[in-house]
Amino acid sequence: MEFCQPERMRAAYLTELGPADAIRVGELPAPTPGPTDVLVRVELVVVDPVDALVRSGAYPTPTPFPFVVGRDLVGTVVAAGPGAVGFAAGDRVWCNSLGHGGRQGSFAEYAVVAAERLYHLPAAADPVAAVAVVHPAATAYLALFHHGGLRPGETVYVGGAAGNVGTAATSLARAGGARVLAGARPGDAGWCRSAGAAEVVDYRDADLPGRLRALAPEGIDLFIDTSGRLDLPAAVDLLAHRGRILLIAGRTRRLTLPAGPLYTHDRRILGMAISRAGVEELAEAAAVLNDRLAAGTLPVRVRDVWPLERAAEAHRAVEGGVRGRIVLRVAP
Q: At what angle do helices 164-175 and 127-141 cross, to 10 degrees?
């Protein structure tokens, strides 16, 4: 369909990799969609921890300058290319996989999104909650079910269960019929239980392995560490026969591998990063997330909603370990 192509747009972008102060907010040329792309007018974005890693260069990925930062968005379709089947002007949509692999990011008034990476936003969904949760929840879904092979009736331990990914993992695992043991601070126990945890243990407890062994005497089927504080020998010993450990944190850590208890019980250690997920995997996760978004059953803690101009400040807050999500409003 015909539309008025915008020439310029506000954006938060980089001209070089570096600290949060390297982020500039100003005008850039608006992007032009290709035949299988969708042009989205962006309303809301959010800062993910991986955004800071990309911005600093700690997580290498192509960043064509000027490089718009950000992974996630909620917005409205302005125009769709002839090959972007299923999208039309006015559709409310979301995406959680921009800003990686040479794709420009989401922190701008307009974003070009490949149709295969874009999903319709359910009419009943809260857009602020949606943009805050789609990245950690997709990570959690793929970790649990695609990589971890979680099945109904199994026991899963979620380390860092009060965090963004941990909360989503707790909720999705419980909805999938698993029994969830959550590792969190005592002050977050109520939050973890409300997300679906059957039991909550203090991850700082000196006898954490003993506590978990008492709660799961037959062993833990899936052990997910979102905190980066994994004690690998203890975790391996806690696994059931053919139990799995899934690592999604602790990027710079070096761990000691207890080979004997691992291979003699058919146990496995896996790693995953959502940045490596294929479009089919992302679409599978999106279908599940959309059902939960429509029902309002994906828990997420939104700390605040700021304007786009505070993008650098939001990056600093995330790097400083802020609790809860910082959403940025792009559309006036």
A: 70
